[in-house]
């Protein structure tokens, strides 16, 4: 309740600041500032403030398990897992996208599709970047900041609060479910929940929040960079009459789905193998359950 209360107050303040400064403008720059303020106010600052209150020594980064890292082998494995997981994520997203609601819920399904199409259009507006400067800005806003803030909130606070009162596995999966649901994307719910669970287990196995933060950043960063590469390719392959030549698409979003489903299956097996290595080949610290009293 403390966390939700602080989150609500700071989010409201962020909305007021944005409204006063930008007057509710729907320009891309204004909306990027809105996303920045919301991410900081909703997901970044509340965990720090709550952890400062809950830790007996007022050491927020100790409570969040951000005061220690992991060996380079652990980070290398974590990065390898996320890179190899791209086709598996696309396969799960493809299967998720094939889910159809009953005919009696056709109106809700149409609303979901319209909402996700609108979200995708806004994301593409955000991702449009001119040059290296724009790409770096997008990496900061859409990859680094969300990875840091969301992991602090979900794995750091929510999973940390649930773990002392529930079985660790329950805490991980409940947190992953909420993590996916809060993104409000039905047709990406399953792969995002699975990623959230993976981040949660990695946090438990390594005892350091920095490892899932890096994994989250790699996932988001690949999406940002691959979109930019696809944009450059589309421009290079564009015909004088307009339109794009076949093959100038975003491979990172399609490999493992559709006719390449077998790549997604292989990806799942490779990820499982790398996770097994992560668990068994390192002397990793156990998960320390925390309480508010601590």
Number of helices: 12
In oligomeric terms, what are we looking at?
single chain
**What is the mean pLDDT?**
85
Shape: globular
Kindly report how far apart the N and C termini lie.
17 Å
Structural class: mainly alpha
Unreliable sequence segments: 241-248, 285-294
Tell me roughly what share of residues is in helical segments: over 70%
> Would you report the number of β strands?
0
- Tell me the number of structural domains: 2
Rg computed from alpha carbons, rounded to a whole number of angstroms:
20 Å
Q: How much strand?
A: under 5%
Compact overview of the structure:
The chain has helices spanning 2-22, 28-54, 60-63, 72-84, 86-97, 106-127, 131-162, 168-181, 189-206, 210-237, 251-254, 261-280.
């Amino acid at each position: 309740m403390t966390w939700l209360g602080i989150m609500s107050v700071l989010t409201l303040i962020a909305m007021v600041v944005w409204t006063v400064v930008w007057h509710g403008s729907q320009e891309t720059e204004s909306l990027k500032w809105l996303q920045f303020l919301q991410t900081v106010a909703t997901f970044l600052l509340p965990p720090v403030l709550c952890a400062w209150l809950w830790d007996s020594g007022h050491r927020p980064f100790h409570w969040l398990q951000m005061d220690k890292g992991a060996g380079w082998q652990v980070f290398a494995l974590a990065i390898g897992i996320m890179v190899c997981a791209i086709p598996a994520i696309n396969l799960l997203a493809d299967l998720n996208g094939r889910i159809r609601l009953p005919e009696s819920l056709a109106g809700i399904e149409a609303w979901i599709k319209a909402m996700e199409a609108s979200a995708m259009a806004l994301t593409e507006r955000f991702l449009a970047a001119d040059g290296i400067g724009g790409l770096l800005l997008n990496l900061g806003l859409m990859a680094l900041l969300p990875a840091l803030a969301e992991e602090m909130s979900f794995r750091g606070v929510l999973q940390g609060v649930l773990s002392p009162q529930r079985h660790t596995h329950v805490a991980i999966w409940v947190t992953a479910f909420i993590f996916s649901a809060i993104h409000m994307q039905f047709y990406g719910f399953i792969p995002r929940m699975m990623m959230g669970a993976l981040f949660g287990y990695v946090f438990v196995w390594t005892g350091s929040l920095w490892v899932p933060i890096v994994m989250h950043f790699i996932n988001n960063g690949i999406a940002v960079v691959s979109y930019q590469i696809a944009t450059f390719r589309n421009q290079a392959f564009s015909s004088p009459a307009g339109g794009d030549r076949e093959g100038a698409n975003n491979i990172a979003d399609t490999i493992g789905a559709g006719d390449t489903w077998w790549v997604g299956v292989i990806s799942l097996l490779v990820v499982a193998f790398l996770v097994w290595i992560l668990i068994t080949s390192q002397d990793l610290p156990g998960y320390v359950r925390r309480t508010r009293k601590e």
